[in-house]
Amino acid sequence: MNKNRLEAFSDGVLAIIITIMVLELRPPAGVELADLKLLLPIFLSYVLSFIYLGIYWNNHHHMFHATKHVTGGILWANLHLLFWLSLFPFTTGWMGENHLTPTPTAVYGFVLLMAAIAYYILQRAIIASQGANSLLATAIGKDWKGKLSPALYLAAIPLAFVSVWISSGLYVFVALIWLVPDRRIERVLTNREKE
Length: 195
Hints:
The chain has helices spanning about 5-25, 40-65, 70-85, 90-95, 100-130, 135-140, 145-160, 165-180, 185-195. By secondary structure, the protein is mostly helical. The protein has one domain (about 5-195). Helix 2 packs parallel to helix 8. The longest helix has 29 residues, at about 100-130.
């Protein structure tokens, strides 16, 4: 099965998710700069979620660049990932509107954790379909970022009830370690082209 339709569909869903998130941003009732202060938690949660969606889009693109074809299992694994990503607008809004209170912050972390697990499942489905010596399997290697991220989310979820700042800091830290585009797939592609 050709991968182009899956990529186009996924790109469209991510674009809609980002659009929904930005439509949730409401301008303040006042006209002074001070009126923006109340919107700061909402805006910061939007920025964090936008960065996460950008990271997922970037890595999804690279992952499918290394994928030759898709199977039914890959399609379902991709839908599973898109499901969790589609919850970003809800959890982003809830966390921002409630000024980083414990329960919304923990639920935000839970959705981040489930999206990370769904991405891992999608990766494994592609590798299972294309083999242990496939381009993606070679590129991923030990995948320390992919293993560290869910561990940090697991720590951040209960920490939200201790300190929302520590929990939020862990979410920001995970985003920062992924912010630099993952070059592993590009390196493997370049090396294979030289052979």
